[in-house]
Write a structure and sequence with these properties.
It is rod-shaped, with a radius of gyration of 47 Å. It is mainly α. The protein contains two helices and no strands. The longest helix has 50 residues, at 55-104.
């Protein structure tokens, strides 16, 4: 009879342990559900996604390109005039130097 009593006591302890495990699992699941409810939802994208540029933007871009092109053209002309002036000055100075050298001899 004591064997049966011991077996019953072991079964009772095991059942109590299983009950505690089941309670722990239930508590973990409940905590996960609470955390899932508390996490903030991602806000919906509030930006308007446009397909392309408006006509005013394209006109502005075109005007900026035209002004830049004209400015680049004027800068190129100024550089060319400056280079031509330096070349002419070099030729004149060379000619004058040659004249000075001839007269000095």
């Amino acid at each position: 009879m004591s064997d049966a009593l011991e077996k019953a006591a072991r079964d009772a302890v095991e059942a109590a342990d299983n009950t505690r495990q089941v309670e722990m699992i239930a508590a973990v699941l409940a905590a996960q559900q609470i955390l899932a409810r508390q996490q903030p939802q991602q806000p919906a994208c509030q930006h308007q996604h446009r397909q392309g540029r408006s006509s005013a933007e394209w006109l502005g871009i075109g005007a900026a390109v035209c002004v830049g092109g004209v400015g680049l053209a004027f800068a190129s002309i100024a550089i060319a005039i400056g280079a031509l002036s330096v070349a002419v000055l070099a030729l004149v100075l060379r000619s004058m130097w040659a004249d000075v050298q001839k007269k000095g001899r």
